[in-house]
Specification:
Chain lengths: 161, 271, 786
């Protein structure tokens, strides 16, 4: 089936099997491998993209359902080679370790910050609850978001004794 | 998806009903996809066709009137429920249960009608609908029939829907507007999880209803109870409705115990 | 080395530095193995056993082979190769019998994953179901069915392991220190209890994936998400009898490992499929469900501890028996058994000790390395036991731990003498005790109890671990200078998220006196291009590779100075350098730029001297020994990282609901190289430890079928589950550590479980001896108490 999808501001027109999900469409048909598959069943959030302004698990959206939709993926986050505020904050706060959950995580954070300019800690946790991370334990991710929104009172650090 | 199927996108109700009558048994309705696509991925169901209900233009969305009550159409997601100011104000029970369903990503796609048609005994949305005395309008080529939500579920993942039928809307009577509500869900973690057992309580004026999920083959709801009833009275009615099992998630006796605990808390909290 | 350099003299070591792989990861441009597409690549799927133990009567692959788009189908009958790290016991595909639920019995390579799946569904397998061995203690019964009747014929590392043919024992590690009978006689009290924990999955966010390519003349290329490229090459070479220089293993970015990707996994099967498919590359990626049952997990443990203690709180004797339920294949489990064997009493001095640790075969998904390498599992038993014994003799559990803690002058289970520089576990315990206000409730905590009706309980637990590795483990670092004076380090230690590459870059920059922007570490590992590294496991990366990095930097500078000395007509001893140039100490204007000599220097007339500047650093663990097989005595430990957790929980003693309010975790890391990386390991490890303590664990039915093979019922912690975590670093320098540093990758996860269990018991009296501790389990324990 022929579909037309706007991804990160660019129009893609592709012929796609009706049973192919949006995740594989992005990765295989559009060459955008930043979005990852962690479970294929909507549990881990590694495949999170923004579709028409809302975060979705792209493993549970058919490519054909995205016909005419506006999709945002991690590849669209940096503009003209310049990292976004979210990306800079993730770097600064070591909110990245193995990096596999990071693209989906950044999309969830992006969607949150569009809606809520100063999310409380609980709201940040709620927004990324669907993005599993096995490496960081989430704290440094939450601190990165608090920093972007000017809410980081004190940098949490290792205490030396 | 590893299993092949075809995708059909009807433009209006009539087209939809024609298709599902014709494809009779070979097709599944695709709403949010958060249950259907998982089942297809796991090879549990292998439909030949998937029919997208979201492309149908003439379904209701969310409307409310004193006469009709609250009408919710089949494309309405948990997100829509949570963000809707009228529902926040008048039907907080719906918001409470919608907020507990899955994660943000799931809530952005999962539909209420999809949730009840999937008819899992854990279905979060079913509890608030049962407490609010909702009904559903089921349409087919043959016509429309209205079924009370408490009669809609017939077993684990089973409903009264026949082949060729589709739920067009949920109707919540206007008399339940502004009912106070509480919802408690037992999970294994604080993060997103399905319910091990869950309790919803709704109070309006002299009437109170309690629904329990994951404690029987279907979600169950009490008859109308006097709002002033004490805990032992309410529990004696609920006790008869539930029959939980031991499974890998939770044991039977702890489920029963926690229903009592949640019930007691809700009776105190919902004023 | 350089362990005594003061903090204020250091520019990069000990300072905050952003991760050098962060750009690629935050932009999604980092390529993981699953992202790679090679020309002609085929996709593989496997057919898996629904039974825990069965005979394979017949496999019919004709329909699968005939499906258009299928390039080959393989069954175990065609593959007579066995693979194994320490005990070579596993066929590439199950041959004649299946030994665990989810084991692969056949595999398909096809043009698309959809076709491959269709083909797998067309493969017909006839099984004869057999009674599985599911209880690891019952597996030792005389009449228990044997999971490996041919155990006696398998090759294994004889210097280290002791399988017992004719039984289900893949390994028996023994330790005998002092005189246990005398010890128990001297004791005023003797207590005995048994503790249990289940199989658990690593759950890396990226599942296992490998691309294998088997070209004519047995030239093998492997792309894989693996922690140890040289081990993949080594085991492959051994099993398939192919020279190592025919095999190339490339590891791009890795999406988490935690030990699950430490050895060899899907690579042999991917390569065998490629061979049958005429040399086309074949990609085999595990689904999340396959990650849970096809790939290995963490062994379950039954730990029996008998402690003899005196009235004054000194432990005089301890007899420890570990029954490791290691599933169907030995993999790393035999070594987990050994490593836990020599460490299994925790960071406490036991004058008279007996330890018997058994790696036991059962018909379950098999156990491999997992962060902590046995220590998370046994620390549950040990730390619960320390609290239990303390309470029985009416002593505060923290005081009891401090009395028995290993200190300078102590002797470990294997006869090693603890010195001032080994590390300070008492300091770790005291630091966390202070942070959680151990022994009292603050005003805020009292308010909390009043407000919620919950009871607060606190506990301090301690831990230790040394790298579990061969005593002769070695590594290398190659440091090349580019034309502009920047450098690239080639390191086969893998970056699995722990931040090792960033820390190593800091060490290199410090040694070279270069700005860190000039140092890059090549992320992809490639056995054709990098110097050997044993494995990325055991928290040994920073110490061994750190030292190799220092030596490589020194070597690079030495070579550069030699060339500069010629140009400047100076003695190398009188030269110094900064980030740009080498100069005469006493005539600083007499200098030559690195960029002038990086790839050779040319004089004005064109004469050339020198050549590409390449520094090589090689470092091997020194002075370590094998353990005596009868007594367990020896010197196995490269270094000991000690640690402690202070845990605060609140419990509703009516419902069993509980909440971890706060964890303070301290580790004697020797020297913090990168504080944010250390914190990342602490927080990440503690959260993983909480998961193991509170919600993770495999559940089987009576026939050995895994009932929770997906995220639906195998939960891990989310952002909403994380309590307050305070990370603390103690710095007792490790003399032979790079800048005095020790590893800390595994340690934050160890003993968290014991801390939670103890704190819960202190809050409400619920006495739990098994994990995970769910809310329901607390309730049930409280019911039992009544």
């Amino acid at each position: 089936m022929l579909i037309k999808v706007n991804i990160n501001g660019k129009d893609y027109e592709k012929d796609v099997a009706p049973y192919k999900n949006l995740l594989y469409f992005l990765r295989e048909d559009c060459g955008l491998t930043g979005t990852k598959e962690g479970c294929g069943a909507g549990e881990c959030g590694a495949c999170t993209v923004i579709m028409n302004g809302k975060t979705v698990n792209s493993c549970l959206v058919l490519a054909v359902e995205a016909n005419g939709a506006k999709i945002e993926t991690i590849e669209g986050e940096a503009v003209n080679g310049k990292l976004s505020k979210i990306q800079e904050a993730f770097k600064k706060h070591h909110a990245v370790q193995c990096g596999f959950c990071t693209p989906g995580m950044i999309m969830s954070v992006k969607a949150l910050l569009r809606k809520n300019k100063k999310p409380k800690e609980e709201e940040i946790k709620e927004a990324i609850d669907g993005n599993l991370c096995r490496c960081t334990g989430y704290k440094q991710i939450i601190e990165a978001v608090q920093d972007i929104t000017g809410q980081l009172k004190k940098e949490e650090e290792i205490i030396y004794v | 998806m590893l299993y092949e199927f075809d995708y059909i996108s009807p433009k209006n109700k009539n087209e939809l009903l024609e298709i599902i009558a014709e494809k009779n048994g070979e097709c599944k309705i695709l709403a949010g996809g958060t249950d259907l696509l998982v089942d297809i991925r796991n090879g549990i169901i292998k439909p030949k066709f998937v029919v997208d209900i979201k492309t149908v233009k003439d379904f209701p969305k969310i409307t409310y009137s004193e006469k009709e009550g609250l009408i919710i159409g089949p494309t309405i997601t948990c997100f829509d429920i949570i963000e809707n100011k009228l529902i926040q104000e008048k039907f907080p029970a719906l918001v409470l249960t919608a907020k507990e369903l899955g994660s943000t990503q799931i809530r952005n796609r999962a539909t209420i009608i999809g949730n009840i048609c999937n008819a899992s005994p854990c279905a979060d949305m079913s509890l608030s609908l049962l407490c609010l005395d909702a009904s559903v309008d089921i349409i087919s080529k043959e016509g429309t029939r209205r079924v009370k939500i408490k009669e809609f579920f017939t077993g684990v993942k089973k409903t009264v829907l026949n082949k060729g039928e589709v739920v067009e809307k949920i109707i919540i009577p206007a008399v339940m507007a502004n009912a106070k509500a509480g919802f408690k869900k037992l999970k294994r973690i604080k993060g997103h999880d399905l319910s091990l057992v869950s309790v919803c309580l709704v109070k309006k004026g002299k009437i109170m209803r309690v629904a329990v999920g994951s404690a029987a083959p279907t979600s169950v709801v009490s008859d109308d109870i006097d709002s002033n009833s004490d805990f032992p009275t309410v529990w004696s009615k609920i006790e008869k409705l539930i029959n939980p099992i031991d499974d890998i998630r939770c044991s039977k006796d702890y489920r029963i115990f926690m229903v009592k605990v949640y019930l007691e808390r809700l009776l105190k909290e919902v004023k | 080395m350089f362990e005594n350099v003061k903090k204020d003299e250091l520019k990069y070591v000990g300072k905050k530095v952003e991760r050098l792989d962060a750009d690629e990861k935050v932009t999604g441009s980092a390529l993981y193995t699953g992202d790679l597409v090679l020309p002609g690549m085929l996709y593989a799927k496997v057919k898996r056993s629904p039974y825990a133990r069965a005979k394979i009567v017949r496999i019919n692959t004709k329909k699968a082979e005939a499906l258009p788009g299928v390039h080959c189908v393989l069954t175990g009958a065609e593959l007579n190769y066995r693979v194994g790290l320490y005990l070579v016991d596993k066929y590439v595909l199950a041959k004649d019998v299946v030994r665990h639920f989810g084991e692969a019995v056949a595999a398909v390579a096809a043009e698309t994953p959809v076709i491959a799946q269709k083909a797998v569904d067309l493969i017909e397998v006839e099984y004869e179901e057999l009674e599985p061995v599911l209880d690891c203690v019952k597996a030792l019964d005389k009449n228990a069915p044997l999971v490996h009747p041919d155990l006696g014929t398998y090759e294994y590392v004889q210097a280290v392991f002791t399988p017992v043919p004719g039984t289900n024992i893949a390994n028996h590690t023994k330790l005998r220190k002092g005189d246990i009978e005398k010890g128990f006689k001297e004791a005023d009290f003797v207590f005995e209890r048994t503790y249990k924990n289940p199989n658990v999955q690593h759950v890396p966010m990226e599942t296992h994936v490998a691309i294998g390519q088997w070209l004519p003349n047995d030239k093998i290329n492997i792309w894989t998400s693996a922690q140890s490229p040289f081990t993949v090459r080594n085991l492959f070479a051994y099993s398939f009898k192919i020279p190592r220089n025919n095999i190339r293993v490339i590891v791009p970015y890795i999406g988490g490992g935690f030990g699950g990707k430490a050895g060899i996994g899907l690579e042999p099967l991917a390569c065998c499929l490629s061979r049958k498919a005429g040399g086309r590359p074949v990609k085999l990626q595990a689904t999340r469900e396959e990650e849970f049952s096809l790939l290995p997990c963490r062994s379950a443990l039954v730990y029996k501890i008998k402690t003899g203690v005196k009235k004054d709180g000194k432990i005089v004797a301890q007899q420890m028996t570990m029954y490791w339920d290691s599933g169907a294949y030995a993999d790393y489990a035999v070594n987990v058994t050994r490593a836990s064997g020599y460490s299994g009493a925790g960071p406490y001095e036991i004058p008279n000790a007996w330890l018997d640790a058994y790696t036991i075969y059962t018909n379950k998904p098999f156990g491999t390395a997992y962060r902590g390498f046995g220590h998370v599992e046994f620390s549950w038993g040990i730390e619960r036991n320390m609290d239990y014994v303390a309470k029985q003799i009416n002593m505060d559990p923290l005081k009891f731990r401090i009395i028995n803690a290993l200190k300078p002058g102590s002797i470990t289970l294997t006869g090693e003498h603890i010195t001032e520089n080994t590390g300070n576990v008492v300091k770790c315990m005291e630091a966390v005790a202070e942070k959680i206000n151990y022994g009292k409730l603050t005003a805020e905590e009292k308010q909390y109890e009043k407000r919620t009706g919950m009871k607060i309980g606190k506990s301090v637990v301690a831990l230790h671990k040394a790298p579990a590795m061969p005593p002769f483990t070695a590594t290398s670092v190659i440091l090349k200078m580019n034309e502009d004076g920047t450098v690239i380090a080639n390191i086969a230690l893998s970056e699995i998220g722990q931040g090792a590459y960033t820390a190593l870059a800091q060490i290199i920059a410090e040694q070279l006196k270069f700005p860190i922007e000039k140092v890059r570490v090549s992320i992809d590992s490639d056995t054709d291009k990098e110097g050997y590294d044993w494995q990325t496991v055991a928290s040994k990366g920073l110490i061994l590779s750190g030292n190799a990095a220092i030596l490589a930097a020194q070597d690079l500078l030495k070579k550069a100075y030699n060339v500069a000395a010629q140009i400047l007509r100076a003695n190398p001893v009188d030269l110094d350098n900064d980030g740009e140039k080498i100069f005469l100490k006493h005539h600083k204007d007499k200098c030559v730029y690195f960029s002038q000599i990086a790839v050779g220097y040319s004089y004005p007339d064109g004469n050339g001297i020198g050549g590409p500047l390449i520094g090589v650093g090689v470092y091997c663990a020194q002075g370590l020994t094998n353990l005596n097989k009868e007594t367990g005595q020896g010197l196995p430990a490269l270094d000991w990282t000690y640690g402690a957790h202070g845990v605060v929980v609140a419990v509703n003693s009516y419902t069993g609901e509980f909440e971890v309010l706060k964890i303070a975790s301290a580790f004697d890391v020797g020297r913090v190289i990168n504080p944010q990386c250390v914190r990342g390991q602490v927080v990440g490890g503690v959260v993983q430890g909480l998961g193991t303590a509170m919600c993770e664990g495999y559940i089987y039915d009576g026939k050995g079928k895994l009932l929770n093979p997906s995220f639906t019922d195998n939960k891990i912690f989310t952002s909403l589950d994380v309590p307050e975590i305070i990370g603390i670093a103690v710095e007792t320098p490790q003399i032979d550590g790079a800048y005095g540093a020790r590893g800390v990758g595994e340690h934050p996860m160890i003993a968290v479980c014991g801390g939670v269990g103890n704190a819960i018991e202190n809050a409400c009296g619920a006495d739990l001896t098994y994990m995970p501790i769910r809310q329901e389990d607390v309730w049930r324990a409280l019911q039992k108490k009544k």
